[in-house]
Amino acid sequence: MSVVLVIAASEIRAALRNRWVLATTLLMAALALTLAFLGSAPTGTVGVGALEVTVVSLSSLTIFLVPLIALLLSYDAIVGEAERGTLLLLLAYPVERWQVVIGKFLGHTAVLAFATCLGYGAAGLVLGWSEAAQDWESWSAFAGMIGSSVLLGAAFLALGYLVSVAVRDRGMAGGIAIGIWLLLVLLYDMALLGALVADQGRHLTAGAFNSLLLLNPADIYRLFNLTGFAKVSMFSGMAGLAEQAQFGRATLLAALAAWVLAPLALAAALFRRKQL
Amino acid sequence: MAEPTVRIEGVSKRYGDRYAVRAVDLGLDAGECVALVGHNGAGKSTLIKMMLGLTRPTEGRIAMLGEDPGGRHAAHLRASLGFLPENVVFPPAMTGREVLDFYARLRREPVARNTTLLERVGLADAARRRVGTYSKGMRQRLGLAQALLGEPRVLLLDEPTSGLDPASRQSFYEIIGELRDTGATVLLSSHALSEIEERTDRIAVMSHGRLVACGTLGELRALAALPVRIRVHFAGPAGGFAGSLLAPNAWAWLDERRLELTCANDAKVEVLRNISSVGGVADIEIMPPTLDEIYAYMMREAAE
């Protein structure tokens, strides 16, 4: 077995052992099922709603929840091992440092993917079982939501690793991780809105605005899920925005993937030069 | 003379403007067990980290088995090195066996041998228990077990016997002895000077980042030139003893039957001859300077 897989497997085992997997899966399943049953209340009926409604409400929730879980999993990954003293021994083994970063990242991504697929998949099953006549587009929107949620999680895992490698102190890493969450999930959009209002459309063109959205993985995720499908964007009230959106789904996915790879590559490079 | 397995040449490590290790030269051969002694912060752990390539020397160069530990083939080289860090820590939720299997897989060693290895360090019964329930000594033995994985050619052990009870200490040195006999190089750092005295081939003394001495215990004794203490027990009250026999060495009565004198090492034989010519001597004890005393002397010298 390759070293990367050995490290990934040990990370998964640790997450199983300390109940991270269980807790995350239960949390996501509970939220997804709640939204699936109650999510259609705004449309006037209580009961299992349309798949599109669930996609809208669930992806809005995912934007807050998944980055937080990902950052909590990852901020400690390197700096925590360094502080506990286990990193020194690990790096004295015949492993390359990038293998440590990638192995741990893969392990955490697997944990997150498992929790998301199982948690959200449960909601999907309930909806599919109760309402047989869902069309193909709705299902592909739902599947796209699950897949992009995992990708969003991976992007924030990668950011967490970058923090974990760059900082010498565990507490500081935790603080920075929370800061990143606040900035990208909450403050970025507010700042963007503020800028739009203040600018009154003089300098900030639609194109520039769209590009600014690509600079935040949470917004890429939002664009991907809320504007990508006609029926979904209708429910989300973003149909207007969807008409203006200049990026295809493939572009958005590529941008989200870049948000995974770039921080991860930077983390591996920083870790390689780190003196212990 | 074969190429030494470990060669350290003019190595310094600076953190800011403070030197952790300064201009150290040291060579270790195959089949040799060398102790690294020194006060806390003397640079022992930093030197070991540099030998593993975990941190890079500011000056000088290190070759382990002919390879640069910080170079491009470092990961490959580390397959031949065993390491036990100071205060070794393992994930508390894993069992001893799981921990050892994980490290064996990292080395691409078959995990089937781990049963024997756990028996060898006396952890066979605790293999299925979580590491969190282990005592300090058991964690240390698990640490030794992982360092022995894959029969490394160079073993770097940082404070390996801390927390071990006398029986485990004994079996620890037996394992080290076996490894050395198969041609491995063992470097162990320690505070417990009395126990390494008899069990290592050479002793390297570090102080404030510098290597102040390195040699066999006999060589260090000669270097320090500390006096030998001799205690003479008389069968009865030795009232008529002619002290002039012992001059110019310093001597004193401990009580009316016991006399203690100190003399230079090379004057020892003559002093003994003089004592044996006196009647009524029941026993003679010769106490060469211990490593503790030599070490204390060297620390004083280094401080001056």
Please characterize this protein's 3D structure.
The complex is a heterodimer of chains A (276) and B (304). Chain A is built from 13 helices and no strands. By secondary structure, chain A is mainly α. In chain A, helix 6 packs antiparallel against helix 7. The two termini of chain A are 27 Å apart. In chain A, 46% of the residues are buried. The model of chain A has no long low-confidence stretch (mean pLDDT 86). With 304 residues, chain B is of the alpha/beta class. Among the domains of chain B are: 146 residues, Rossmann fold (3-Layer(aba) Sandwich); 62 residues, 2-Layer Sandwich (Alpha-Beta Plaits). Helix content of chain B is 31%, strand content 28%. Chain B is built from 10 helices and 13 strands. Chain B has a 6-stranded mixed beta sheet, sandwiched between helices. In chain B, strands 11-12-10-13 form a 4-stranded antiparallel beta sheet, covered by helices on one side. Chain B is globular. The model of chain B has no long low-confidence stretch (mean pLDDT 88). At the A-B interface, helix 1 and helix 5 of A face helix 2 and helix 3 of B.
